[in-house]
Amino acid sequence: MKNLLSHESSLYLRQHSNQPVNWMPWGEEAFELAHKADKPVLVSIGYSACHWCHVMSKESFEDTYIASIMNRHFICIKVDREERPDIDQTYLEAVRMFNQSAGWPLNLFCLPDGRPFWGGTYFPNQDSGQGIVPWPQVLMRIADHFKKERHEFEENACNVVSNLIHANNGLSSNENEWKNDLLLSSAKNICDSHDDEDGGFTQAPKFPSSMKIDFLLTMRESQAIRTNQKLSHKIDHSINTTLTKMANGGIFDQVGGGFFRYSVDGKWHVPHFEKMLYDNALLLTSYSRAYQRFKNPIYREKVEQTINWLIQKMTEEDGGFFSSVNADNEEGEGEYYFWQYHELEKILEKDDFKKFVNAYGVSETGNMENGRCLPIRKTDYEIDSTSFDEIKKILLKKRSERPEPCRDKKKITSWNALLIRGFVDAARAFNRKEWVQLAYDLNKWMTKSLISKEGEICSILFEDKNLSSLAYLDDYAFWAESLLNLSSISDSIIIGSSKNLIAQAEKITLSALDKFKDPKKCGFFFNGDGEINPAQVRKKFWYDNATPSANSSLLRVFSSLYLLTEKECWLKEFKKARAGYPTLCHKAPQGIGHALSAIADNEIGLCKITCSPDQVEELMYEIAKNPYRVIFILASNNNDSDLSLSIGRGFNEKIEFPKDCIEKIFS
């Protein structure tokens, strides 16, 4: 046998194509071989921008001795988690059942049919003194036990599969069990977990908490929170502390723009240096919505810098946005972003040098290992961001001379859809028509480039221009949600475009119902029927992970379609979908922020404003001055210039433009 990855479209798989491990791509051929050879299957999952994936690859998968053990005892399958999120999420859930840390690289040991019996994340190639069993020992122990006590592994696998199936529906409720008090208790629970000193909702490592922040921002506009001074103060503190600490910290590229994936430490200073499209898309939404309430200029600054980075580094003339930037360049992790004190002294004029090092905490001893400095904005130093523009241009020019981290240029449907939503939320908050145009053009590109000749949505357009043959619930749900969000303000640039976008969203949603809906119980499966399902299970995913849960996303789609089309079928779908969440609110509200936001927005009341074309611009201006609410501005070309306002199901009438309209919405 030989390594079979060289002709794969995935950059991550091709990065492993010259290794001595006999890697195979996921598919029937690998499992047929496992059955024939009667060997366990090793499924190793990662992605091209992942630092620890590259570390384990170099330490173990490029080692001929370790590779020989893997080849002798296992059928080895390599998976790109971005190409096959269904495999990744299913096996992540399984690893958590083994009481192992879940992350990447993710390594699963499975029976020949793919059912997992044990797994973990990174394993060193030798004893590192940190209590982690070295990879060669793990391999030999698993191989030996499989031969001698296989029945134990088979019992483990049966239990895992039973638990995975149970998790699909085990927490579902009756449609009538939802109570709005659950929103209030969930907000309290999330705030109670907040680190009031350094921000974030966990201890180190800390990840951006976009879905939690968005839910708290939504709840902040509810009457229940407005009249609760203690909780409203707590929510404000949680939002502002987290967003401000992140904006100032090393998790944001202070020179080039864009957020890194997470912070290793508890103060947001030391990032893990990969940049992911989805993080930056989601954070555009969070910072834009937060700006509408708090008017903090640093929120505007981060949105502008992130959008500039996305345009400059993450797209190309053909359209669409790349998936990620590697954590490492050829010199090591993060080396592209570090500076030395005396290096800056030579690059910058004296006054600019003094100004920059004082503002961004640069010193001769450094704030990282070996005297290296990562710019971190001092919170007690007043910074007019525009006064640093020329300095940053000089630093960016110098930085461009370094070996640049590799970008994974595949374009993922669901992540580009999240970016449409981010562009729209930024455009709404800052009244920037050019950002509405960015969102509109991105959807135009997606419609042209991410649908097959047969008219089916495809999950990925690879760098080699091949389209993935698969698509997932994420692709449908996020795209439909982004289309509806775009329709809310698209008439500001193209009168009548909202009608077409709503129709496109409804068409995609109907396809999702056909392909993914569970006909017997609430919720939607992640992948279509008839595919090779990981662990022999067709999964539903309720919790948000790095991106929102697609089941959560559909809640907003259903409620918006009901408001916009007035079709009762969408209200029924909303109520059915909401039945998946009451028990989850009690058990783990921190994991369902996107669902909670959608439910809270619906209960507060989605707004639809029908107006004449010449009223759109003033409405956009007025809405930007107020806190975020879900508002659809739909321009009408008929002769009736009176403005019509609908709020949820409780208010629908003609109203004076624009003062009474705005007061009615935000009262």
What does this structure look like?
The protein starts with 10 loop residues before the first helix and ends with a helix. The protein has 667 residues and is α+β, with helices and mostly antiparallel strands. The strands form 6 sheets. A 4-stranded mixed beta sheet has the order 2-1-3-4, sandwiched between helices. Strands 15-14-16-17 form a 4-stranded mixed beta sheet, covered by helices on one side. Strands 7-8-11 form a 3-stranded antiparallel beta sheet. The model has no long low-confidence stretch (mean pLDDT 92). Helix content is 49%, strand content 9%.
The N- and C-terminal alpha carbons lie at a distance of: 69 Å
Quick one: overall form?
A: globular
Please state the CA-atom Rg, rounded to the nearest Å: 25 Å
What is the tally of beta strands? 17
The stretches of 5 or more residues where confidence is low (pLDDT under 50) are: none
- How are strands sequenced across the largest beta sheet? 2-1-3-4
Q: Which structural category fits the helices and strands? A: alpha+beta
**Biggest pleated sheet:** 4 strands, mixed
The chain-level mean pLDDT equals 92
| Helix residue percentage | 40-55%
- Percentage of residues in DSSP E strands: 5-15%
Individual helix count = 26
Sequence-ordered SSE layout with sheet pairings:
Elements: H1 11-14, H2 28-37, E1 41-46, H3 51-61, H4 64-73, E2 75-80, H5 85-97, E3 106-110, E4 116-120, H6 135-148, H7 150-169, H8 181-192, H9 210-220, H10 223-226, H11 229-248, E5 262-263, E6 271-272, E7 275-276, H12 277-294, H13 297-313, E8 324-325, E9 328-329, E10 332-333, H14 341-347, H15 350-359, H16 389-399, E11 407-408, E12 411-412, H17 413-430, H18 433-449, E13 460-461, H19 473-487, H20 497-516, H21 550-565, H22 568-578, H23 582-587, H24 593-604, E14 607-611, H25 616-624, E15 631-635, E16 643-647, E17 651-655, H26 659-666
Parallel strand pairs: 1-2, 14-15
Antiparallel strand pairs: 1-3, 3-4, 5-6, 7-8, 8-11, 9-10, 12-13, 14-16, 16-17
